[in-house]
Amino acid sequence: MPRSGHWQGFDWRRERMVHRLEHMGIHNPAVLHAMASIPRHLFVEEALRSRAYDETALPIGLAQTISQPYTVAIMTQLLLAAGKTGQEKVLEIGTGSGYQTAVLQHIYGNNVYSIERIFELHQLAKKQLRSVGASLVRLAYDDGYAGLPHEAPFDRIIVTAAAPELPLALLQQLAIGGRMVLPLEEANGVQYLWLIEKTPQGFHETCVQEANFVPLINEQDEEF
Ligand code: SAM
């Protein structure tokens, strides 16, 4: 079926984004395939669609952002670095636009859970994920700081907002042999992306690179 110039435009931009990601060091075929397949422009508001494939974060309303493509790619690649059995249970904190959720669903299937604390974003993400055929991910409107204890343990956890320290509940809900990727903000305001691996002997922590995320809100603290 012939496609309109509009759609060809988005396809071309998406292809160019994937080539750029390869040049930036993203080599995992599953990550590249997911990002080549998912229409990222559908996860941003119409006025910003022409910029959806640029290497930048974009506003999604309510003072939140869709992470830039490289950030989505590197975090997903870090989750995948230990391989994939296809049986992994995956938890995302900070659904936001739902784009990262769609990437996770493309790779890990329907065993993906995602939590968002802003109701409007939770609802919008649900709609967008349905529209791209990812309706079987399990979306929760809740405080992600507490994780999802009734669904734990999780083999992979990804946190898409920066906390000042490792959230204890998430460490507890990570399976032995599991991996968590998250940004942490230091007292001086500088953020770093961390990979946390849970082994039978304890936690192994690796600082990956500098990061730039919106804050992970601790609702417990907000109440005081
Ligand atoms: N993964 C998102 C995407 O692809 O669009 C990125 C979302 S944005 C960088 C981070 C999100 O984390 C925001 O939507 C914000 O509301 C959410 N967030 C912050 N603190 C949270 C918490 N305690 N629980 C759940 N979501 C939280």
Show the helix and strand layout.
Layout: H1 5-23, H2 29-37, E1 58-61, E2 64-66, H3 69-80, E3 90-93, H4 99-108, E4 112-116, H5 119-131, E5 138-141, E6 154-159, H6 168-173, E7 174-185, E8 191-199, E9 202-211, H7 219-222
Parallel strand pairs: 3-4, 3-6, 4-5, 6-7
Antiparallel strand pairs: 1-2, 7-8, 8-9
Helix pairs in contact: 1-2, 2-4
Give a description of the structure.
Belongs to the methyltransferase superfamily. L-isoaspartyl/D-aspartyl protein methyltransferase family. It comes from Vitreoscilla massiliensis. InterPro entries: PCMT, SAM-dependent_MTases_sf. It is found in: Cytoplasm. Its EC number is 2.1.1.77. By secondary structure, this protein is an alpha/beta fold. It has a single domain, classed as Rossmann fold (3-Layer(aba) Sandwich). It is 33% helix and 25% strand. It has 7 helices and 9 strands, in the order H-H-E-E-H-E-H-E-H-E-E-H-E-E-E-H. A 7-stranded mixed beta sheet has the order 5-4-3-6-7-8-9. A two-stranded antiparallel ribbon has the order 1-2. Helix 1 runs antiparallel to helix 2. The longest helix has 19 residues. It is globular and about 50 Å long. The N terminus is likely disordered. S-adenosylmethionine binds next to strand 2, helix 4 and strand 4. The site of S-adenosylmethionine has 25 residues, from strand 2, helix 4 and strand 4.
